[in-house]
Amino acid sequence: MDAVNATEPVPSAESRLRAAPPHALVATAARLLAERAGARDVTLLLADYGLTVLQPVTHLPHTGDPVPARDSPAGTAFTAQSPVVEVTTDPATDVVHLPLTVRGDRLGVLSVRLPSDRIEPSLVLQLGEFATALGHEVATAGRDTDLYLQARRTRRLTLAAEMQWQLLPGRGCARAEFVIAAHLEPAYAIGGDNFDWSTSADDLTLTVTDGMGQGIDASLLTSLAVGALRNARRAGVSLADQACLADQALFAHYGGRAYASTLLLRFDLDTGRVHAVDAGSPQLFRLRGTTVERIGLEAQLPLGMFEETPYEEQVFHVEPGDRLIAVSTGVHGTRSAAGDVFGERALRQVLGATRGTPPHETAHAVVAGLIEHFGGRDLTADAAVVCLDWTGRAAGSGTAARA
To answer: Which residues contact 93 (CB under 8 A, 6 or more apart)?
Structure first.
């Protein structure tokens, strides 16, 4: 797409996207693709908070009609994470739908209408690279404009949900050693559930937190817990000490009146050795081959329940091909109208049925099963689901080998 007169340097597509004002990325992308690929129309679609539709980014408060996040050409590109060419009723043009993903975090889809005779594999590949560059700019622009966050909404978020979604690292993360996918429900009214992660050269730290209560009170509690855990993690202390420091921060503020159940995991990327602290109610399951098992960790006290609670780490191992699922109480403890608990049996069934699907689709299947069990999307308890596929690191590919 960058073939130009070589008499003088011409800015790359990436540099022109970086130079665009935060709110003008779609217009800039449309101009670039018109100039360099003959695009007739360009639409940026972002996944809504509930992952049910893809919302067009336009001049707010006006917006176009949403597109199903499944059962549509754009939705197929989003769920399958691969380009989809849609043959349209216009014999002269077709639409290429390209997944917009940043380091494993699925943002949405870029839809580009092109002359039919120009669509060929090499151009689709270039368009995919352009979509990736645009995705990075959209993620960065979110610091300076509300446009892309507003475009993700089918309705207004509660204040508690606004706080929780802003606290998250994203909804996915991918490296050669692992892929993470996560989701929260009820997406537009979440209060106390949270997930967090951080990866370095040699390890991955993952937490799932369930702050007691509902609404603003739960959100404030969880925000303090996550902030304290991040502060301790960034100080370089052990996983057990991270739990201890967060416990002290919560008790100092609430005096034991409120507490947060938290599962803390640290993965060694070289060995698959996992250090864990189970401080409360989130549960952890492992799918290895065709066998689903709950990883039995010693339940310790939630963060902030008592003053200066000591925490101890446990160790287990993951192997290449393992899938881990962490769920909050709002998943494994939710009851149907008849009083039946969603529970371990239902989780095992969902995990077994989704063995061959990507982590994002497995997390979605758990949420869909939970909503079906409950009888509606307006869950009475917050629910967090985190799915991690472990590949691990080949021998000799660690930090020492790269030095």
So the answer is: 40, 113, 114, 115, 116
Instruction: Quote the CA–CA distance of 351 and 362 in Å, as a whole number.
Output: 7
Bridge partner list, 113: 41, 95
Q: CA-CA distance, 322 to 160, in Å (whole number)?
A: 34
Residue with tokens 């197929």: 76
Cα 13 to Cα 2, 37, 145, 260: the distances in Å are 7, 12, 21, 46
Domain range 157-390, CATH architecture: 4-Layer Sandwich (3.60)
Q: What is the pLDDT of residue 1?
A: 59
The residue type of 66 is: P
- Fold for the domain defined by 13-151: Beta-Lactamase (3.30.450)
The three-state secondary structure class of 307 is coil
Beta pairing partners, 315: 275
Tens-digit pLDDT profile for residues 59-76: 766 567 899 999 999 999
Same fold, 13-151 and 157-390: no
| Distance between CA atoms of residues 39 and 124, nearest Å | 12
The helix/strand/coil state of 50 is coil
Q: What is the C-alpha to C-alpha distance for residues 267 and 276, in angstroms, rounded to an integer?
A: 9
Radius of gyration of the chain (CA): 22
Domain boundaries, the chain: 13-151, 157-390
Q: Calculate helix-pair angle for 159-167, 215-234, nearest 10 degrees.
A: 20
pTM of this structure: 0.90
Token pair in block for residue 363: 């997390």
Q: Are residues 185 and 383 in contact, defined by beta-carbon separation less than 8 angstroms?
A: yes
* Cα 144 from Cα 199, distance rounded (Å): 25
Continuous H helices in 203-294: 215-234, 239-254
Contact (CB, 8 A) for 352 and 290: yes
